[in-house]
Amino acid sequence: DAGVIQSPRHEVTEMGQEVTLRCKPISGHNSLFWYRQTMMRGLELLIYFNNNVPIDDSGMPEDRFSAKMPNASFSTLKIQPSEPRDSAVYFCASSSRIRISGANVLTFGAGSRLTVL
Amino acid sequence: GESVGLHLPTLSVQEGDNSIINCAYSNSASDYFIWYKQESGKGPQFIIDIRSNMDKRQGQRVTVLLNKTVKHLSLQIAATQPGDSAVYFCAENLNSGGSNYKLTFGKGTLLTVNP
């Protein structure tokens, strides 16, 4: 299993440009999460999908951020227009909630480091 | 509330020593507690979890202790190795109601193992 695959690993862009981050979750996992990590705020949940449906997007900072999951094997996080304060590492994670009980153990991707100049 | 964290708590140990990483959690209703390890340039990696009705759980070279009275969690690493150098996060998981997917992560502790 290749794990959760994210691309690009690094992105440097200028303010105002559109940024698209991509994620391929682990096959068979029905839950997908986008997190943002910064030194100031730590790991923050941006959005959660279950069975490709967005369940909780309350962590999405503002309308400039959008996420989609068109199928079980692909998700995107888009920032348009990007701003310097969006600079962070963005992680995608997936989990399999086969059982109702049990901890929600996430498998994280390697992350996409975004720098907005 | 949210705390502003410019600096991670750090722990420096000698190779071969035991390490103890501590975490204070906030929600007494949390059902599970999870420890993650994040190496430089990588995503967090699951280490071990513990259910709230337990006070101790052991894994390979790691032990997690849970003290619900003071809402404290610790991760003990035996015979610490250079490869254990990483940031360690604890996370709370409330496994009931409609928010059972949510993990609340702590700020993390940077463990440095000196050879």
Overview of this protein structure:
The complex is a heterodimer of chains A (117) and B (115). Chain A has 117 residues and is an all-beta fold. Chain A contains no helices and eleven strands. In chain A, strands 2, 4, 5, 6, 9, 10 and 11 form a seven-stranded mixed β-sheet that branches. Chain A has a four-stranded antiparallel β-sheet with strand order 1-3-8-7, with no helix packed on it. Chain A is globular. With 115 residues, chain B is mostly beta strands. The relative contact order of chain B is 0.33. In chain B, the strands form two sheets. In chain B, strands 1, 3, 4, 8, 9 and 10 form a six-stranded mixed β-sheet that branches. Chain B has a four-stranded antiparallel β-sheet with strand order 2-7-6-5, with no helix packed on it. Chain B has strands spanning 10-14, 19-24, 32-38, 45-51, 56-58, 62-67, 72-77, 86-93, 103-105, 109-114. Chain B is globular. At the A-B interface, strand 5, strand 9 and strand 10 of A face strand 4 of B.
